[in-house]
Amino acid sequence: xxxxxxxxxxxxxxxxxxxxxxxxxxxxxxxxxxxxxxxxxxxxxxxxxxxxxxxxxxxxxxxxxxxxxxxxxxxxxxxxxxxxxxxxxxxxxxxxxxxxxxxxxxxxxxxxxxxxxxxxxxxxxxxxxxxxxxxxxxxxxxxxxxxxxxxxxxxxxxxxxxxxxxxxxxxxxxxxxxxxxxxxxxxxxxxxxxxxxxxxxxxxxxxxxxxxxxxxxxxxxxxxxxxxxxxxxxxxxxxxxxxxxxxxxxxxxxxxxxxxxxxxxxxxxxxxxxxxxxxxxxxxxxxxxxxxxxxxxxxxxxxxxxxxxxxxxxxxxxxxxxxxxxxxxxxxxxxxxxxxxxxxxxxxxxxxxxxxxxxxxxxxx
Length: 365
Description:
Elements: H1 9-16, H2 19-29, H3 42-51, E1 75-78, H4 90-110, E2 115-118, H5 147-158, E3 170-175, E4 180-185, E5 188-190, E6 193-196, E7 202-206, E8 209-212, H6 217-238, H7 244-257, E9 268-272, E10 279-284, E11 290-291, E12 296-300, H8 303-313, H9 320-335, E13 345-350, E14 355-360
Parallel strand pairs: 1-2
Antiparallel strand pairs: 3-4, 3-12, 4-13, 5-6, 7-8, 8-9, 9-10, 10-11, 13-14
Helix pairs in contact: 3-4, 8-9
């Protein structure tokens, strides 16, 4: 999508070539005879005309597989022009670009785009192409909470485009009296499509240690395998069982190592210390910042619902049976209010002499 000021090259080619010549051109230029242009919605075409940007869509077919059914992935590539003259105040230039790109993203969302890609340094008016530098330094911003990040975060929330919500899922852990519990839902999906109702998100890492890894399913499996490798290496070298707090530090360091290309997971750790049997719960963000409260931790796509339920139901010094009832009710009622988690739950009650695994039936719709 870009500013439409000159006559489109594709239109010139289609106007001046007959069907046979067009096939030959497409074969040489695109590598296939059929250009595979998609028909766009009327509202999309009207918006592009009103907002002065060009829009077009094309399909790319993959080889057919025998074992897996085909699926459709929609992605958008945005190339935009500057909006205001470069002698205008920098903030006005940036805000005008935000406004233009926001309208383009709104149109992309109406077409069902799942992944959208913006050009490099998209929020600045192309200062890299000029010999000047000093006046453009003000466009440098924080990669975590700069203006363009905050702008895109609002749009990502508006259209549920966070990669952490792509597969769905929820994990919660609670402390009790000489015990701890961790629970997760069973659903695995691709956005609104449910693929499996028995996908593991909580893994046993030691005699009394569990970790939950909600987030992007591929990263869940990768991180679990790497954690198992590092934990086995630690126990071989140290000849002792890893404590939950040590495990938490190891996981935090591993996530922080990848902070510039992070694993899209939000871990939850629950366990009893093997030496003094003290309960321990912890959660962290995708770059490994830990949170170690005295009551409960939550993670996943229904975190807001889980926080409300846990605040209402959790009490100090819960016995194992009471802890199971509390964490089950919290997870079931929270998942019922989230469209991309649920479809059953599994609860682990961790005590110093046993681990109890219980499966909970929930709504299956």
